[in-house]
Amino acid sequence: MNKPDIHGAGETGSSSGAAHGQQVTPDHDINNRLFFRLCQAANQYERTAHRELNISAIQGVVLGALSRYMPDGIAFSSFVDYIAVSRQNLDAVLKRLEKLGYVERVENRRDRRVRMVRLTPAGARAWETLGGRTVEFFRHAAAGISPEEKIAFTATLAKVTRNLRNLRMAGDGREDLRQEDGMQEGMGEEAGGEARRLDEGGDAGRVARG
């Protein structure tokens, strides 16, 4: 069984290409490591931001972005593209911030068909406080990284974002995934039963969870 390469980046020898009998090239391996690290960093960012700032990463991004569009706000459709999330996900985040009284959606004075998203006075005050802590948060998170490395990394992430935005793969892999899910359904139920037995097994259960 292959183990995560905790000193490198990503899973070694366990790529999707290898699973389908395809040759794993050095280029594929480094791509796999790159996106594993991106996912890992994003997850860690989310956890740490919630712990240290008492707000989710995406909520902080939304408040910070809206602070750039005060006082009128930004059209919802434009905001979706700016944040690079789905309409449904952004709507859920905005609803949470609306409940907190930090954000409101209003009609565009020039075109009532357009909904504008903007900070409320309470939201502006919250961001003023949070913004100061965010500066310190980012300073610690970027410790040991030179200005040149930050500039190069930012440019690289922008390229990756553009590539992902424009990516259109031939075919539809979702059907293959559904077929694999169906084949493994019985195995999953059996594994679930075994996991429950381990969980009920005292010390063995605690080791499994650890």
From TrEMBL:
Region of interest called Disordered, as start-end residue ranges on this chain: 1-24, 171-210
Protein name, per record:
DNA-binding MarR family transcriptional regulator
Q: Which domain of life is it from?
A: Bacteria
Q: Which SUPFAM superfamilies match?
A: Winged helix' DNA-binding domain (SSF46785)
> Where does the record place Basic and acidic residues bias?
171-181
Q: Per the record, where are the segments of Low complexity compositional bias? A: 12-21
Q: HTH marR-type domain spans which residues?
A: 31-162
Read off the Pfam families from this record.
Answer: MarR_2
What is the scientific name of the source organism?
A: Camelimonas lactis
Q: Where are the transmembrane segments?
A: none
PROSITE patterns tied to this protein? HTH_MARR_2 (PS50995)
